[in-house]
DNA sequence: AGGCAGACTTGGAAAAATATTG
DNA sequence: CAATATTTTTCCAAGTCTGCCT
């Protein structure tokens, strides 16, 4: 540590001292005893050494840092390389669910929800089991407390529960800066901000913001691309020193949102108890959503089924009272399923023209709704389509998975738009819930979804300047962290033995977040899947394996399992033992004195803007940069790309980005193996032929003549396989000859020539395959002389065989590499880290340094998203 | 000091688009 | 050219984190 301290550029603003003076809360109960004594024996005061990472170039500086190879082993901060075992290998049941009771809450909710008068209540909710913490009642969108939004709320059906709870906060809430519905009128704050923003931006734009740029249209010939290539000027927002980022826009115009088409009934009955039951269109709709998922895992998930059926029955009860449907097991959805299968089939087989037409329609919609005008520039939107109704596909064991997600109506939607812009008209006969002009937010439309009562937004796309700016900001923050991470590490290492349990927990958690790239881990509700992050880890998620190994096993975001057995600092190990001390037991929080807010507040004091997730970004980018140093400087492009993917993979491993193994994985792998066998067989035959010409060759390359030995040799060839393979080849050869014969004859016919007769065909076959076939019928392989059939051609046969063998050897090596790559990638998803964690400047600089075209590592969208980085690195 | 609304980033799966192969 | 395999994009769920409001 000490050594590196001195190199610390002094970016840090907070010192250890300061931290130590933090007032310490008393220890909690039982844990008191241990603390100090436990620490004493700690001989190793030696904090894990971490040198100043050569990593991310300090902000400002071009990412040339890549070039300097000063890697010292211990500087790889990321534990992951020591991870003993990929998580995939350990499929395992999950820990018990948190023991907690919300009976009281549940009771209250149940009681209140009963009281509300039907009607608009989304049935989903109605039937729902009691344990809902928030009344998921969608219908109770917190109304914008705004002055005039009265007009909008048709929904007077706010459930009591909510009303009672929140009535007090209604007025004046979050009104700051938000202007509602009256163009031309705005609060003072807003308008002021607006003015400043607009002036500064305007000038900046004039000066350096606009630059000529060629539209990147090099795409293939008729490649559509619509003519969206905005000729001419492109806005380079990154050239501006942008001031205020709480103001997201000064002018904003758009065309609103696109609604999915109405449901069209198909009139296919549900088979219930072996009898057909015609469904009311509304009931049919939701039944259809389920039917379409019949073959998915969802349909086999009991929670999903239960939730779906509850909501389905609620609708049935409403629209066709007296229906007999009470038992899910008596429902047979296959008629509907078949219907949808048929539709899919039809769609698959649609003619090219029809497909094109469909696409054109989509593009037309996109051209209207897919863009917005932000400060006078046309920019891409992310999602302009309103989400269609369906069954909520909650992941993991989400308590509400399968619930009916109801159709979003214009009356649910709040539009955010510039005060001067024309408000897009709602569909005829409808109106918007509300129209606001809030330039402190970046969304264009918002609604609340009914299943979980969550906010949904229509926002700008990743390629927009708005998102680009915050992306850049994110990576800059990570670079800043680079400058002070040493100090921060030193500090938390010291705090690992702090007298205050709260501080100790904080330091321990931070250690884990830094070393293992864990997520912060906010608290979650009872009505969500039980997943955790660092701060919410529970007793059962970490086990101790002396002397210093912690075994993590928990479900993280999206219910992806995190399994990792990792050696940690002795004091960390000790601390975890303390935090797990009885009477603490399963179901209780490991860090019971720590919240994400508390942790982040502390981080803010160490570096402006620092929060837990910055460590993930920083460590990911750092890992990428370090791993890229393994790129073979003299390798081929192919090899370099492989190295890049490897580095990328390390990052994904660190971040635990996993994916489901594809259904066809096994088959695909087997295919590759077969390809290798075929190559080896070919090589062996050539080698035998060569040996006949040149006996010395065999002595030099004994591996080619045996099935012994490793991958390099002819291992995994067997006489049986060889025979089968040769039969296969021969059969294919025959087919090919026959096909060619037919074709030739057709051509002759076209030229009015006399077609060749059967005899000609037979002659050809005789020459090429008949003899082989006879041998094969007797389970014999054809002579090597017949393979390859190049003996009569010119040139030195020996040489040609030798070089042919070399070529095959190369191909084998390549395929082997491909297999390895595929296998390593089996459960690892690279996309997320590429998109969100790796500083694009690192990749771009690497690309330049190694002469690898950027298209090889960044897809078109990525290149678009990271335009700013390409431009910056270029300089 | 803790709870929650709100907004925005991150994440895996599925769909769509392309590339490869037979 | 059709059928498959692979890559890229879209979709929307599930996190993080800030700022208000008691």
From TrEMBL:
SMART domains hit by this protein: TOPEUc (SM00435)
Keyword terms, alphabetized: DNA-binding, Isomerase, Topoisomerase
Bias type Low complexity, positions: 99-114, 185-207
Domain DNA topoisomerase I eukaryotic-type: 391-851
Biased composition (Polar residues): 12-21
GO process terms (BP): chromatin remodeling; chromosome segregation; DNA replication; DNA topological change
Catalytic reaction annotation: ATP-independent breakage of single-stranded DNA, followed by passage and rejoining
Disordered: annotated span: 1-231
EC number: 5.6.2.1
Highest taxon in the source lineage: Eukaryota
Gene Ontology molecular function terms on file: DNA binding; DNA topoisomerase type I (single strand cut, ATP-independent) activity
Family annotation (InterPro entries): DNA_brk_join_enz, DNA_topo_DNA_db_N_dom1, DNA_topo_DNA_db_N_dom2, TopoI, TopoI_C_dom, TopoI_cat_a-hlx-sub_euk, TopoI_cat_a/b-sub_euk, TopoI_cat_euk
Location of the active site: 837 (o-(3'-phospho-dna)-tyrosine intermediate)
Keyword Isomerase: yes
Enzyme class: isomerase
Comp. bias intervals (Basic and acidic residues): 213-222
Stretches of the chain forming a coiled coil according to its record: none
Cellular component GO terms, alphabetical: chromosome; nucleolus
Function: Releases the supercoiling and torsional tension of DNA introduced during the DNA replication and transcription by transiently cleaving and rejoining one strand of the DNA duplex. Introduces a single-strand break via transesterification at the specific target site 5'-[CT]CCTTp site in duplex DNA. The scissile phosphodiester is attacked by the catalytic tyrosine of the enzyme, resulting in the formation of a DNA-(3'-phosphotyrosyl)-enzyme intermediate and the expulsion of a 5'-OH DNA strand. The free DNA strand then undergoes passage around the unbroken strand thus removing DNA supercoils.
Family stated for the protein in its record: Belongs to the type IB topoisomerase family.
Full protein name: DNA topoisomerase I
Organism: Dimargaris cristalligena
